[in-house]
Predict the structure.
Amino acid sequence: MTDKTDKIEIMVNDEKKMINQGLNLKELFTEMDVDPEVAAVRLNGDNIPTEDLSNTVLTAGDKVEFVFFMGGGAFNLSEEEIERYSRHIILKELGGAGQQKIKESSVLVVGAGGLGSPVSYYLAAAGVGTLGLIDSDVVDRSNLQRQILHYTSDLERPKVESAREKLTEINPNVEIKTYNRLLDRENVRELIADYDVIVDAVDNFPARYLINDACVFEEKTLIEAGILRFKGQVMTIKPQEGPCYRCVFREPPAEDAVPSCQEAGVLGVIAGTIGTLQATEALKQIADIGKSSAGSLLIYDALDLSFREMGINRDPDCPVCGEDPEITELIPYEISCSIH
Ligand SMILES: [Zn+2]
């Protein structure tokens, strides 16, 4: 009896795992939350037939591999993709079906800078089917402290060109669409119409409001974020379900009222923290997992080491998503790159 509660160490898909002594392979499926219908199992290099699972008791040092197959059209992933995304597929909440949703999804990242770098790195690595990237800038030396898509050898190159190279190298399965231009009132609605999720990775207020309003009009999910100094915030906007950016901040601040990162500085890694949260939110929306973050604003303060979540309600008087909106078409804001 006492033996049964002792733990032994085995390897599962190259990772160490402590299990109860006496556990058989069938019980391991349950313990790992793997559906026996979508995976075959190999023990120390040998395939184990389904009928032998319950009488195959694991011993210390065993090497177990779950191999996921494309059975009965359950999901349409190549063998290369199944291997590449195996750490996703093994997650019960995601599985092959979730990875399939990611593969079929399209995300537009507006801005290939501080936030856009981690966002697009992780979305490309995760296997998003189509990743759009819009930015009209070229790489400047002062970008390199946080815009990790761009290397010293990329100075003066268009950011979208530099980005495409890195992202293709990470995951050639992803279709990268780049737009070397400014987002403006004329092109924004047409651009976002082609994508499932929009990520706001811009660094100026005119663009932020333009994207918010366009996403409200086109009913697109928008992952919004901003960073400054040692702080950052992120908010998921689902126009049909919760508040928009204007429900929180009705009008852009007066020019020069809020300093830009150029004027006030930003700890580079804050872009990584917040951009990674944006990528996580985008993947959650695509795979439809976890709690809906519509209606919450998450504020991170690095110096305090604190995260604060603020519940935000939809404002019935919101000028763009309220009951009687006064903004019914896009406002011609002046978008300048001068604060890049
Ligand atoms: Zn609103």
